[in-house]
Amino acid sequence: MDLTRDFLRAKSPCADGFRWFLRHFGEGGNYQELLDQLVADGRAGDACWLMDQFGPTNKVLVVDSIDADALVYAGTVEVRGNIDVEAVLRVGGSIRTGGGIRVGREMNVGGDIRIEGHLRSGGGVNVGGDVQVGWGVDATGKLACGGNLHVGRDLVCSDGVTFGGNAFAGENLAVHGAISCAKTLRAGYDISVDEDVRATHGIEAGGAIRCGRHLEAGWGIRAGDGILADGSIRAGESILAGDEIRAGKGHGIFAGLSVPIDAWETCAKVKARRQPASLMSGWWEGLAISL
Q1: Do 209 and 285 sit in the same domain of this protein?
Q2: How many structural domains are present in the chain?
Q3: Which of 40, 55, 70 is the last residue of a domain?
Q4: Are residues 143 and 274 in the same domain?
Q5: What string of DSSP letters covers 28-89?
Q6: 5, 30, 62, 251: which sits with the fewest CB atoms below 10 Å from its CB?
Q7: Could you tell me whether strands 28-30 and 2-4 are parallel, antiparallel, or unpaired per DSSP bridges?
Q8: Which DSSP symbol is given to 269?
Q9: Per-residue DSSP letters for 208-268?
Q10: 123 and 247 both lie in a single domain
Q11: pLDDT per residue over 110-163, tens digit each?
Q12: 55, 70, 94: which is the final residue of a domain?
């Protein structure tokens, strides 16, 4: 795709960026070549702005590995080995790599990500489609996944997390912010979150669930160990724990919020090592707790 001077001017670029374009490409130039030259001149921010205006392409870049200060590519990137980018990694299509990905500052991908190794980002990670990572994920900034996420090992994020589909971590899931999940949130071991956890469907952990604020699921909540929150615990159906269930001081535990009271015995069970003192609704050992 070629971009002409008039076509670019219609997008209201900054004066400095437009002068750069005229100096290097005159009346016009190829879209990807323009992106490459902007990155080469240390103008990765301008290259990302250009992608915001003109979107992805169907081109495919196939290489053995990538080691660069920044990469802005409008199409899909296929790498046999590792991707190592010091600053910004911006891809309009998808990324598939046989190794791992390390990004120093920011990662933004319009399509899916398939990574055989580890994903490490010194800033945020924004993915429009699905994320599949063979090993683990470490992100310093916000993590946003528009589709489903599947991580083979740990998922660790220093900020908030948003999932547009199901999310699964094979081992631990630790987030130093809030989690919003449009479907089901699961971890093989522990789920540990500093702020709110909200899942439209269910929440399940092989180990413990620890939440710094409110814990809420539209369906049920299940943990192999304890379910602990500093705020309220709310579930549309059952709440099942291998150890204790404990809400924060002054907060309640609510099961069966999405089912009729006469269905609590089968659809709103509350199980734990001992009955929680703050259980407000649900079915405990055959005894209905009225609202």
Answers
A1: yes
A2: 2
A3: 55
A4: yes
A5: EEEHHHHHHHHHHTT-HHHHHHHHHHH---S-EEEES-EEES-EEESSEEEESS-EEESSEE
A6: 62
A7: antiparallel
A8: B
A9: -EEESS-EEESS-EEESS-EEESS-EEESS-EEESS-EEPPTT--EE--TTS-GGGHHHHS
A10: yes
A11: 999 999 999 999 999 999 999 999 999 999 999 999 999 999 999 999 999 999
A12: 55
Same domain, 171 and 227: yes
Phi-psi region of 282 (alpha: psi -120 to 50; beta: other; left: phi over 0): left
Helices then strands, counting H and E runs in the chain, come out as 5, 38
pLDDT > 80? residue 202 = yes
Q: What distance lies between CA 135 and its chain's CA centroid?
A: 15
**Claim to verify: residue 268 and residue 159 sit in the same structural domain:** yes
- 21 and 142 belong to one structural domain: no
Type of residue found at 69? D
The DSSP bridge partners found for residue 246 are 228
Rounded Cα distance, 155 and 235, in Å: 24
Residue 250 identity (one-letter amino acid): G
pTM of the model: 0.92
Mean pLDDT of 173-197: 98
Domain span holding position 33:
1-55
272 and 148 housed in the same domain: yes
